[in-house]
TrEMBL record:
Domain of life, per lineage: Bacteria
Protein name: Zinc-ribbon family protein
Domain Co-chaperone DjlA N-terminal, residue spans: 95-203
Chain coiled-coil ranges: 68-95
Keyword Coiled coil (UniProt): yes
Organism of this sequence: Aquimarina spongiae
Residue stretches making up the Zinc-ribbon domain: 24-85
Keyword Endoplasmic reticulum carried by entry: no
Pfam families from the UniProt entry: TerB (PF05099), Zn_ribbon_15 (PF17032)
Listed InterPro entries: DjlA_N, TerB-like, Zinc_ribbon_15
Amino acid sequence: MFIIFGTRGIKHTVNDSPVLSNSCPNCNDGNLVHKLYRRWFTLFFIPVIPLDVVDRFYQCDRCKSAYNENIKTVLQQSKQEIDENQKRAKQIFAKALVASMTHMSIIDGDFAKEEEREIMDVIEGFVEMREELMAIHEDVKVNANKDNRVFNYLSEARNVLSSEALINVLAQAAVVLLADGSIEEEEETLMKEYLIACGLPKEMYQTLIDKLKQKDMSKLKEGQLN
């Protein structure tokens, strides 16, 4: 008999923490609910034993935007300060995303056109930052992680963004892994290093890949039906 065990992260609501009513900076009306990511030991894919808490954050119950725990302090600041913090978080998110995606695409020595297209699509989504993001893209494409620049972007993101936002960065970076149809050993190793740099367990790697593959399969089925 085979015994299948492992670990996985599960999101929980912190029941003894008050809800921040009508406080979401993104949609304005949503309530911010205190959440945590806890790693669980699994047996036959069933969570059995709770392990360490990976991160705590607030998530809007309406638009699902996620915020670092310091959002409570931010909400006490002026609207101008809130807008500036949101703008800075968006910039940090975009820089970390483009840098990690570009680095991931060149790590195997073969920068495929499918990978380039994925990165260009992301850059076009940040119109006001397009020039700066293109410069980051070209720099990493040529110099890779020289002076630890890519991991510095991720480190800055870790200090500002919630784990939910960090997972979003890495999930989009993982799209590059699958863009050319195969995952090289160098790409897998690098993605695990990204997870660690973001303060997330490297065991989340397989979860990210499985979800992306499921998403791709769903798109394929929808295309066949249409």
